[in-house]
Amino acid sequence: MLRNIHFFNIKSEVNEERILRLLDNEIAEYAKAFGCIERKTWKLLSAHVQGQPAQSAAYMNESLWPSQKEADAFTQAFREDPPEKVEKAYAEVQAGIDPEKTVRYVDEEG
Question: What gap in Å lies between CA 65 and CA 71, rounded to an integer?
Answer without folding.
Answer: 6
